[in-house]
Amino acid sequence: MGKGNGEVVGRLVVDGDGALDALMQNVEQATAGLSPAESWDGLRQQVPGIIRACVDVITHELQGLDFWDVLEAIRQITSPSDLGTYRESENTNLPVIVEVIALVGLAQAPDGGQQPDQGLRTPRQFNESVEKIHAAGYQIVQVAQLMAFASSEDVHLGKAAELTGILRGHGVTVRGRNYLSMSRSVVSSIFGAPHLEKIVRERIGYTHEDVLRVWDGIQRFRSNVHEARIERMDQIVQEWAAGKPQPPTVTAEGRQIAHTLLQGPGRGLTFTPSDISAESGVNESSVRSILNAFSIAEISTSAYDACAKFVDGENLLAGKGMIRDEDTFMLFGDPIPHDYVRPVMESLLKPAPGKSAKDWERYKRHRDGWAEDTAASALANLLGVDSPTFSSLKYRAPNKASSADLSQESEDPKLDTHDTEADALFVIDDVAVCVEVKAGSITDKARTGNVRRVETDLRKTIGEAAEQASRLEGLIRQNGGLWQPNGKWLDLADVREIHSVVVCLDDWGPLAIATDALVRAGFITDTSIPWLVSLHDLEVIKLLFHHPADFLTYLRRRTDPVSSRLIVAADELDLVMWYINGDMYIEPDPDQIHEQHPMTSPPTAADRRRFAESNVPTRISTLTDPLDAWMYYSTGQTGIPAEKPLRKHSAFVSGLLDFLRAEHKPGWLRFGADLAGLSGVAQQGIGNHVKRLVTMTRDDGEFHRSIQNFPGPWGHPVLFMGSKPERRPLQQGMERLAAYGTLKKYQLQADRSLELLFDTKYQIVSVRYLNDPYVKSDYMDQRLRESTLVAPARMPKAVPPSARRSTVRLKPKKNKKR
Question: What interhelical angle do 572-580 and 548-559 show, nearest 10?
Fold first, then answer.
């Protein structure tokens, strides 16, 4: 995207030409039926007419048809036949269209949506009606998306209006926010605790295990019925083709099966609690309760009002996956939407007004504790350690608006301070990660776009957690340690790099990524940006990152105060895949980098041009197709093989990361992240440097050395490499490299360096990591004057840690002169 003069003002990252075509098609259809307007209000005035026209089309085409059959036909259109071949990035069909048709049908026919099939339609006419109904439903969905976007501009509604619009837009079309296997694992872990099972069964009438078995039973029952019909139809056709005489009853049976498959797919796949009880092994009473909890029989409003509510952000079918007519059920989506299992069961566990909350409080304590333990375990896995350094860490914090002294020299750390607690703190060498976990749920009102409720929910979750994590990070950064309630000082002076992570049990979708909007709305007030992530996404990410250094690199880029405010995305996992693909890099300001690291080369015009082109709003579309395929295959949802997506490094750097991680050698995590963040060219260059050093040492029997430095937003790391002659003592090689590295690090004013000494077999025989900050020294200055070191100004330009550009990116074309 660019201005008329060719200046880039925005970027769009897509997953190939097919994804770009699908995106452009969706954009073109988004304004279908709308006339040009000068303002959002002008477009809003057109919406009621569009909704009414679409509802009229759907209502008219439903006449003479069985509503349930139409719903199933549209569900088949919008659902993939095999998840292994499904590519979300190229999809132009949306399952939510079925919900819009269901809203109209349920409002038109309160008895369950059944309309008599008068046999007036041929298969062709049936399909034509289905196409018209689908098109009208799709248009209502597109209008809902557009109005959600428009609501982001309603700043008069409050600071959270922009965030509310983002949440509404996400809620319009996204169904199944989480992977089924992960959702099941969460539900089983929370509700499957032995001390809760009896409480859950008594209060709700069924357990989480019953819900999962019913879901499986529905899938098996429908599949068995459908496959039996296909098999019987094939048998009848084969008998007819072979000339075998068939009685009229068989002919009629074949016609009935054909009619059911082509024109009666809905009624042909209905089921009862008795059917599912027999299939699942769950008692019929519990099955009926579960089916009723996730189904709907009628809508007590007009079709127009139901669709108008949908466009305004209120979906009357939220959390439902089935329609019921007395004791008969039919699904229109996921029969038991797995994202809603926990919220629905929690709502049934909550006590009625005036009733004892003992059971609910017991459940909450278990849920919150489980969420904290699970988040800490996942982060420990990603960071390459066994567990957090501190769990439930208690420390002293200043009272609000207080200037309390909490430095190590404080005479009274209890003065104007209070005891508080952090859920977890990781301290790994010189890296600290502060962790806060929030298990509270997003309210239904917030999901439907209620601005005040969104603001309240955000403050209780993201706002409070971000404030708590930032407070801990600030105390460590400012004081180099913490005062504990017992009066002991916790020394953290060796920490050089700090990050904050906020993990939410609920999925806030694009709001967790909308850093700029969160800052504008005041939910993030510190200059440090925390990483906001759902527990589900954290568990998926844990499976994808092989090197802890990769995770730290991702954390750096994801929370960079400048670049994170430029990124717009709907899903955290899209950003993860952007990184895994070798991208997720926005050029830092070269003038700022030079100011922070004055011994680096001054920026060039090319540096400033790259920064200007890169430092623009960047929208990330769906990039998770490879991840989806692997998740579906690895969990048995498809038989089509797919490999796990992995971020690739050069063979040399990959081996080096493994070497440093083994036994946690000095600088293994922080400097490992410096190496992991380098471009493929830069990584290959390091390997080539080592080869040249070793080759020269083999040829002349002398010690050789080389330097690579990578200044950037996260400091100025310098890599020193040396090659030791085979017949020279190891200590001599170590001393020569250390003398050079120490002096050169001081000359460059670098904040950290890693020294690697290689033998003539390319084996690393010595590692030294320095992370002491630059402090001016007369002694070191004198040594520099006496040395033969090349001045920084005469050194080759530092290798920038640019990312590999392997994803397809939408770039504007310059306007041609005419």
Answer: 120
Contact 577, 627 (CB under 8 A): yes
Q: Which pLDDT band, with edges at 50, 70 and 90, does 461 fall under?
A: confident
Q: How far is CA 435 from the centre of its chain?
A: 18
Q: Determine the pLDDT at residue 111.
A: 44
pLDDT greater than 70 at residue 30: no
- Specify the range with the lowest mean pLDDT, choosing from 72-86, 469-483, 679-693: 72-86
Query: CA-CA distances (angstroms) from residue 640 to 77, 82, 223, 678?
Result: 21, 9, 19, 34
Has residue 630 got a pLDDT over 50?
yes
Most distant pair of Cα atoms in the chain: their distance: 109
The residue with tokens 């949802």 is 637
The conformational region for residue 347 under phi > 0 = left, psi -120 to 50 = alpha, else beta, is alpha
In this structure, the number of other CB atoms found within 10 A of the CB of residue 241 comes to 8
- Residue 78 tokens read as 């919008």
Token output for 394: 């208690």
DSSP H helices, 522-604, are 535-544, 548-559, 572-580, 590-596
pLDDT at 697: 96
Taking CB atoms within 8 Å and a gap of at least 24, the contacts of 217-222 are: 217/276, 217/277, 217/279, 217/280, 217/281, 217/282, 217/287, 218/271, 218/276, 218/279, 218/331, 218/335, 218/336, 219/335, 220/279, 221/271, 221/275, 221/276, 221/279, 222/269, 222/271, 222/331
Where would I find the beta strands (DSSP E) of 266-388?
Answer: 295-296, 322-325, 328-331
Cα 314 from Cα 310, distance rounded (Å)? 5
- Rounding to the nearest 10 degrees, give the CA dihedral for residues 278, 284, 287, 289: 170
Greater confidence, 266 or 738?
738
* CA 468/CA 814 separation, integer angstroms: 47
Using N-to-C axis directions, what is the helix angle for 96-108 and 303-311, rounded to 10°? 150
| Mean residue pLDDT across the chain | 87
Please state the rounded mean pLDDT for residues 732-758.
96
The pLDDT assigned to 116 comes to 47
- What is the pLDDT averaged over residues 306-329? 92
Q: Which sign, positive or negative, has the C-alpha torsion 543, 549, 555, 558? A: negative
Q: Provide the β-strand partners of residue 800.
A: none
Across 16-25, 293-302, 536-545, least confident range: 16-25
- Identify whether the C-beta of residue 512 lies closer than 8 Å to the C-beta of residue 572: yes
DSSP code string of 265-294: TTGGG-B-HHHHHHHH---HHHHHHHHHHT
- Spell out the SS3 assignment of 10-64: CEEEECCHHHHHHHHHHHHHHCCCCCCCCCHHHHHCCHHHHHHHHHHHHHHHHCC
Q: Which of 546, 540, 547, 548 has the alpha carbon at shortest distance from 576?
A: 540
What end-to-end distance do the CA atoms of the chain give, in Å? Answer: 20
Rounded to two decimals, the pTM is: 0.90
Tokens in use for 96? 């939510």
Distance CA 177, CA 526 (A): 29
Mean pLDDT computed over 316-336 = 93
Residue 475 to residue 145: CA distance in whole angstroms:
43
